[in-house]
């Protein structure tokens, strides 16, 4: 029994939906359950009391509440959820208006009005909720004050009608204010968590992905490669003699050099390739859908771009070069061994004069180098 109840409350909830969406789905389930049962029970009561039009209205409302819940579960799409919520709010509003017109049981019908503001605000959000509430309040005022002598409208005293409207407006205002604050807090929390997540994956100096962010991209790319069977390549770049740049210019200028290098590295990359800061003066390239030869070709062009024109750092021209080690990642290798091989190729490039691109064949693990590098 408890299991079924839990299943009902969480029906339609999906782990990949946003928290806010899942919360709304749960509240729709709960509200539809309460709405369906209360209107059904009141319908039976009205039927026993031989108030057939009231009982028919309540039974219809009960069915509509149930349908609105089924709608969001049966068709789990954003459109279905919008329709479900629209149906639920409309049903509640129409039912309330009918209860105000007929008076319900002993003229207690208008009391159900107070359900409308919180439900409308929560389900429809601040702006749409406010518009719906304004339309509802105007309709209520017309019914209460526009048909004073009409026999089909229940007879309420003037004092009751004005107090009813004032108190309804107060509840509406409070609900709107509450929803506005709730949405603001939610947006702020979302913004902060996105900022934290971004900071956790990005390097504050270059704004590139940091090691953690790059590692996640590597894992994603590896999974994609296993599906597509098309290899990709990784490369580690290490700025040549960076220590001497730091030693002669200072750490701050060194930072600026790293920043400008990251811009140059990025300038020649295709949109789908990824650049990250692997640590210190080391960068990582992920060339998606690219074999070793393709990555070497791309890196040659990047290397040329860096070495040909000096950087301008605080008014000084600085010539900077970088060495690159490349390795292909295929289904036969794993990421850590590919990184290890890229590192070996990088050491090879450093040992052989720097400012060069070297690759290690993924088949025999023997280093070979591109056109500008020494052949092994
Ligand atoms: N300014 C600055 N320096 C850094 C940063 N991270 C690492 N470094 C410095 O980078 C230098 C790296 O020097 P080494 O590893 O000796 O290598 P290198 O001088 O680049 O020489 P080779 O790699 O052999 O060409 C060290 O002095 C580090 O302190 C950083 O974020 N900013």
TrEMBL record:
Any idea where the GGDEF domain is? 230-362
SMART domains attached here?
Answer: GGDEF (SM00267)
Database matches in PROSITE patterns: GGDEF
Q: Which CDD domains match?
A: GGDEF
Q: Which Pfam families match?
A: GGDEF
Asked if the record carries the keyword Cell division, the reply is no
Please indicate if the UniProt record lists Transmembrane as a keyword: yes
EC annotation from Swiss-Prot or TrEMBL:
2.7.7.65
Classification via InterPro entries: Diguanylate_Cyclase, GGDEF_dom, Nucleotide_cyclase, Rev_trsase/Diguanyl_cyclase
Keywords recorded for this protein, A-Z: Membrane, Transmembrane, Transmembrane helix
The UniProt transmembrane annotation reads 25-48, 54-71, 83-101, 121-146, 158-178
Q: Which domain of life is it from?
A: Bacteria
Give the protein's cofactors: Mg(2+)
Which SUPFAM superfamilies does the annotation name? Nucleotide cyclase (SSF55073)
Name the Gene Ontology molecular function terms of this record.
diguanylate cyclase activity
Catalyses: 2 GTP = 3',3'-c-di-GMP + 2 diphosphate
Name recorded for this polypeptide: diguanylate cyclase
């Amino acid at each position: 029994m408890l299991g079924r109840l839990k299943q009902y409350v969480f029906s339609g909830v999906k782990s990949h939906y946003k928290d806010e969406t899942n919360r709304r789905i749960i509240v729709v389930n709960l509200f539809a359950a309460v709405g369906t049962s209360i209107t059904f029970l009141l319908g039976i009561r009205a039927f026993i009391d031989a108030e057939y039009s009231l009982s028919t209205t309540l039974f219809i409302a009960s069915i509509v509440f149930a349908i609105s819940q089924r709608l969001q579960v049966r068709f789990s799409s954003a459109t279905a959820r919008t329709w479900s919520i629209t149906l639920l709010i409309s049903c509640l509003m129409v039912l309330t208006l009918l209860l105000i017109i007929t008076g319900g049981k002993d003229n207690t019908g208008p009391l159900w009005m107070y359900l409308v503001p919180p439900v409308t605000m929560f389900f429809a959000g601040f702006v749409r909720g406010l518009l719906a509430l304004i339309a509802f309040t105007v309709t209520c005022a017309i019914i209460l004050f526009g048909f004073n002598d009409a026999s089909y409208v229940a007879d309420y005293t003037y004092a009751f009608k004005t107090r009813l409207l004032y108190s309804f407006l107060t509840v509406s205002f409070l609900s709107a204010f509450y929803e506005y604050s709730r949405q603001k807090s939610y947006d702020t929390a979302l913004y902060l968590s996105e900022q934290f997540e971004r900071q956790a994956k990005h390097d504050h100096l270059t704004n590139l992905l940091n090691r953690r962010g790059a590692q996640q991209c590597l894992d994603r790319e590896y999974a994609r490669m296993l599906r597509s069977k098309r290899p990709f390549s990784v490369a580690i770049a290490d700025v040549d003699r960076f220590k001497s740049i730091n030693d002669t210019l200072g750490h701050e200028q060194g930072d600026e050099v790293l920043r400008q290098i990251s811009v140059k590295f990025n300038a020649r990359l295709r949109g789908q390739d990824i650049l990250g800061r692997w640590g210190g003066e080391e960068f990582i390239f992920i060339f998606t859908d690219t074999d070793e030869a393709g990555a070497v070709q791309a890196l040659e062009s990047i290397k040329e771009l860096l070495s040909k024109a000096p950087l301008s750092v605080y008014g000084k021209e600085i010539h900077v070069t970088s060495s690159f080690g490349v390795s292909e990642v295929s289904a036969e290798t794993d990421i850590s061994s590919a990184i290890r091989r890229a590192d070996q190729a990088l050491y090879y490039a450093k040992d052989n004069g720097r400012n060069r691109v070297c690759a290690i064949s993924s088949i025999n693990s023997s280093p070979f180098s591109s056109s500008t590098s020494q052949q092994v």
